[in-house]
Amino acid sequence: MSTRRTHIAAGGWAALAGAVSGALFVTVAEVVALVAARDASPLIAVGSFVVDIVPRWAKELAIELFGSNDKAFLLTTVGAAALVAAAIAGILELWRRWAGAALFLLGGAAAVAATVTRADASALAFLPPAIGAFVGAASVHVIIDVLRHWRCAPDTDRPAGVDRRRFLLLTGAAAAAAVLAGVGSRIGSAATSSIAAVRAALKLPAPANRVKVPAGADLHLKNLSPLFTPNADFYRVDTALTVPSVAPSTWRLTVDGMVEQHVDLTFDDLLAMGLHEYAITLTCVSNEVGGNLIGNAGWLGVPVREVLARARPRHGADMVLSRSVDGFTASTPLTALTDPNRDAILAVGMNGEPLPLEHGFPVRMVVPGLYGYVSATKWLTELKVTTFAADQAYWTPRGYSPKAPIKLSSRIDTPRLDRPLSAGPTKIAGVAWAQTVGIGKVEVQIDGASWQEATLAPAINADTWVQWSLDWNATSGSHTLAVRATDRSGRLQEEKHTPIAPNGSTGWQSTLVRVS
Length: 516
Hints:
- By secondary structure, the protein is of the alpha+beta class.
- It has helices at 3-36, 42-53, 56-66, 70-95, 99-116, 127-152, 160-192, 195-201, 267-272, 304-311, 334-338, and strands at 252-257, 263-266, 276-283, 294-303, 319-324, 329-333, 345-350, 353-354, 364-366, 380-386, 409-414, 424-433, 439-446, 452-453, 455-456, 466-474, 477-487, 509-515.
- A hairpin with a 5-residue loop joins strand 13 and strand 14 (452-453).
- It starts with a helix and ends with a strand.
């Protein structure tokens, strides 16, 4: 074999040894995190760091392409990048002794920094990435040292097969250890996580009042969004790469800042204030025209204004900075939370059951009329009464407005281009929303002709979307459908399309359909 081919082959084996050592780094760190600091997974910490520094356009693109799967995509990407870096470290270790090991330790230091600076980091958060990096560095150094004897500087006093077998044995053992550690950490995590069981066993008190749904509010049309979005289908957009685990027994809410009285509430304290049922539609600022990052639900909760009343905000305060256990913050106008005519709540239930884990269990905020990034904090732990001049929330320095009322919008759910449609009588149908005001009228345009007023289903209230439909005798061929809405105050939906940043998209939806 030529020298060049020998070096290429050695480089391939070195990359394999580096990748295996990288997997060992990550899985050992996961095991240590399971035992000593469950909040200190290096992958999650680095992934969260990426979420924090990623430019706005990249965040918007990820949500557009992957929707609620954007977190899985990010974690996969971070994991793949870590393996590539580990493979490169293996090659560096082959070229220069300790160079690859040093790269592992450098990566470990970066992971430690990302971990200990998280808002929910514990005192031992540095241990998992530190120990994982040490094990990975030792692994790559020892394995590559054997590879160097086998491929680059064979010992003439013994057959090369001895070092080859040692290399393969060590690499295989490291790979097996990584697999066992990974499987063990997953099993251990599942076995020791009790939050799902706690949620399943939780019985919320009956609310003092129930939402009255008018007859005919749900048109029950095929392919039309249901009046209430099932929890399993409700969109999820947040910055948490893993769902925080918060037990109701340990949950605390602090109300501080510009207040006359510091307030601390337990979960039982909150329930004792008395629950009420509300119907409220939530919308993500990342929802494009015609998008599906919106859902309507029935919520159980306590008015935020009643909690703030205990704290007595001081004169001059105009914002409440709500904080999640994972450090996320949202800036909500104080007036939106204290307005007696707006049902801003601390929610504990969703569609007849305790909040799902991924939707903020045990307590989250729900505020009608404001996009989620300035109002709908999940896994809530703090309300800081402050001012917009003094504090900024998570997304504000990233190019989004500190205040973001939800835009008057409408959407066509059916028919759609990706669903076959036969000629003949059919219905054009969808939803429209104008929170805190209500929908007054929805109009549909077919192939650029005159606008036709659709039939509105009875609205639950001004804070929920409303279904609408229009009878259409569809003819064969391609057709362009457009929709626009007018709210109860007479304001027409904005026609011009604008991007989601800095405070939500606008525009009339237009869609192409084909009729056979």
